[in-house]
Design a protein that fits this description.
Blueprint (H helix, E strand, L loop, with lengths): L2 H4 L6 H10 L1 H21 L4 E9 L8 H9 L4 H4 L17 H7 L3 E2 L8 E2 H7 L7 H11 L19 H13 E5 L6 E7 L2 H58 L6 H38 L3 E5 L12 H21 L8
Antiparallel strand pairs: 1-5, 1-6, 2-3, 4-5
Helix pairs in contact: 3-12, 10-11
């Protein structure tokens, strides 16, 4: 008795394999076509390279002990590394790429392709030196014919990174796609990963972004100290000028009354000498404050340790051509098997 016939929900694999074997010529037709189409597609997409920098910045640490710190550590968070008195914590550094002002500062970085001699800005590289798949050119040409809109937006009173045109915005978006900044919440290590169609360009951008990020962090960390230093420096200059004026007045008065022994002259001289000493003390105080603020700048300046430097990649990061073609062949083979075995699946719902 044939149990398969009595139970329509049971699939006879022997029948399925026999059906596939009898229609194997279909595979000879489908797989070569899929192979050729996949190769044409994937080999038309320009290759890209990646470079990476790992940076460990010095951070102000607070007291991260106690029960809360223990609980956080069990989930992979190190409060001793992340706790800081700064308004912008290290966890927010990756969000800098969302700021047009920061991205705008990256546009003037000078880059050079590995096989070329001319040097261009990163802005021009993204705008004029990007390779496309062959079908991208007719699509762009068709768009230019059908969509005849001028480049709208942008500031009318000079360049403003927060008021940019559509074309400029598209370039900024390309930069954001090619640059990735992330931070390890456990160790505090900042990783900068850059992608470009040229290996030397992505290495140059990784190094340059590392320098710009270091400068941003340093400027932010030392901003209050620099404001204080400039404030006390101005006060010290003014105090010195006041002291010099008081000293000159006192000297001129003494020289003019050197042979006069009147009590009023002596009292006036003592009064002017006291005033000069007060001005001198004020100047010394402001100068001390200025030197302390200057030392605070150095104290607040973070030290950076480069854990992994950027290198010129030898091999492209993508697209993975062999993996893509193999994957498409597998999907085509699987789809063909499903197509041939579709009549052998009988399910009653």
């Amino acid at each position: 008795m044939d149990n398969n016939k009595s139970n329509p929900n049971v699939i006879d694999l022997r029948v399925v394999f026999k059906n596939i074997k009898n229609n194997k010529k279909l595979f000879y037709k489908v797989l070569p076509v899929v192979f050729v189409v996949s190769c044409i597609y994937i080999f038309s997409i320009p290759r890209y390279y990646s470079s990476e920098v790992k940076l460990a910045p010095e951070m102000e640490s607070g007291d991260a002990g106690g029960v809360l710190g223990s609980i956080a550590s069990s989930f992979g968070f190190n409060f001793s590394e992340m706790q800081t008195s700064d308004a912008i914590t290290p966890l927010l550094y990756p969000d800098l790429m969302e700021d047009n002002g920061f991205v705008s500062n990256l546009m003037n970085i000078k880059v050079r392709e590995q096989e070329e001699e001319h040097i261009v800005s990163y802005h021009d590289y993204l705008e004029k030196y990007q390779k496309k798949a062959w079908w991208g050119y007719p699509i762009d040409g068709l768009k230019s014919l059908l969509i005849k809109k001028k480049d709208e937006g942008g500031s009318k009173n000079g360049y403003d990174p927060y008021n940019i045109s559509r074309n400029e915005n598209s370039i900024f978006e390309k930069a954001r796609e090619n640059i990735n900044i992330k931070i390890d919440k456990k160790t505090g290590v900042i990783t900068i990963n850059t992608t470009a169609q040229d290996p030397l360009v992505c290495k140059t951008m990784a190094d340059s972004i590392k320098d710009r990020l270091q400068a941003f962090i340093t400027d932010y960390r030392t901003n209050k100290a620099r404001i204080d230093y400039n404030y006390y420096k101005q006060l010290a200059i003014e105090a010195k000028q006041e002291y010099e004026k008081a000293r000159q007045r006192y000297g001129a008065y003494i020289d003019g009354n050197v042979n006069i022994a009147m009590q009023s002259v002596r009292l006036k001289a003592e009064e002017m000498e006291s005033e000069m000493e007060l001005k001198l003390n004020n100047y010394n105080t402001m100068n001390t404050q200025m030197q302390a603020a200057k030392a605070k700048i150095q104290e607040r300046t973070p030290a950076f340790t480069v854990i992994k430097g950027a290198t010129v990649p030898v091999k492209p990061s993508g697209p993975k051509r062999m993996i893509f073609v193999a994957g498409m062949l597998f999907l085509a083979c699987f789809a063909t098997i499903i197509y041939l075995a579709r009549k052998d699946f009988h399910f009653n719902f």
